[in-house]
Automatic annotation (TrEMBL):
SMART domains: PKS_KR. InterPro entries: KR_dom, NAD(P)-bd_dom_sf, Sc_DH/Rdtase_CS, SDR_fam. The keyword Nuclease does not apply. Belongs to the short-chain dehydrogenases/reductases (SDR) family. It comes from Emergencia timonensis. The keyword Oxidoreductase applies. Pfam families: adh_short_C2 (PF13561). Keywords: Oxidoreductase. This is SDR family NAD(P)-dependent oxidoreductase. Residues 6-188 form the Ketoreductase domain. One of its GO terms (biological process) is bile acid metabolic process. Gene3D superfamilies: NAD(P)-binding Rossmann-like Domain.
Length: 246
């Protein structure tokens, strides 16, 4: 097993890519520390992990709140005896064209998608350093190619890439690796409406011939988090079905 007995903190673990990552990592022997805003989806995830014979702990938190994030992460680490790997998936994805965007809309996305990344990584990193572990942040193709109506989301995800690359240099000497996975269009609760409005146009742009599924993104995350990727740090894996090349 790739992740046997590794204690993996996953934000956004109650749905979409986060939940699927929890399932795939549990299959690889990981102990899952699932965090999210709502308890009910986390309990569903924990039940799925249990059905696989795995072990999990859960905690609710708002990643936009540093103190709440730190308290929840410290509690999970205490229950599990530490944290070896962080997978940061939690994010929001709300449409607002720039000329119509209110300051409140901008700040809401930045507070969750960028500041939330700081809050989670900063709170978890002492444990990761102790374990000489790894961090995988889920970003987006929008960070590289832009997406009309999502300037706040694109900007925050691009910033997380910059944060990851800088921390890879800062923390590499401590034995910590940090990488990103940038999914292309993937079928999750967060993107379902966007896909429904343009399924055929998306399919025309995908050499692989299908829209991404959460398990396909989760597989890339599992690889980067594991020792199979021991010589990879500060990188972005583009799991996009060939939608963008280069």
């Amino acid at each position: 097993m790739l992740l046997e007995n590794k204690r993996v903190l996953i934000t956004g673990a109650g749905r979409g890519i986060g939940r699927q990552t929890a399932i795939e990592m549990a299959k690889e022997g990981a102990v899952i520390l699932g965090a999210g805003r709502r308890q009910a989806p986390l309990l569903e995830m924990a039940e799925q992990v249990q059905q696989l014979g795995g072990q999990s702990y859960i905690a609710t938190m708002d990643i936009a709140d540093y103190d709440m994030s730190k308290q929840a992460i410290d509690a999970l680490a205490a229950e599990a005896g530490g944290i070896d790997i962080l997978v940061h998936c939690a994010a929001i994805f709300e449409e607002a064209f720039f000329t119509d965007m209110t300051p409140e809309q901008w700040q809401r996305t930045i507070s969750i998608d960028l500041n939330g990344a700081y809050n989670v990584i900063h709170s978890a990193i002492p444990y990761i350093i102790k374990a000489k572990g790894s961090v995988v942040s889920v970003v987006s193709q929008d960070a590289f190619y832009g997406c009309p109506g999502y300037s706040h989301y694109s900007a925050s995800k691009a910033a997380v890439v910059g944060l990851t690359r800088t921390l890879a240099r800062e923390l590499g000497p401590s034995g910590v690796r940090l990488n990103c996975v940038a999914p292309g269009i993937t079928e999750t609760e967060m993107t379902r409406e966007r896909i429904a409005d343009g399924r055929e146009s998306y399919l025309e742009k995908l050499p692989v011939g299908h829209i991404g599924q959460p398990e396909e993104i989760a597989d890339a995350i599992v690889f980067l988090a594991s020792e199979k990727a021991s010589y990879i740090t500060g990188q972005v894996i583009h799991a996009n079905g060939g939608m963008y090349l280069g």
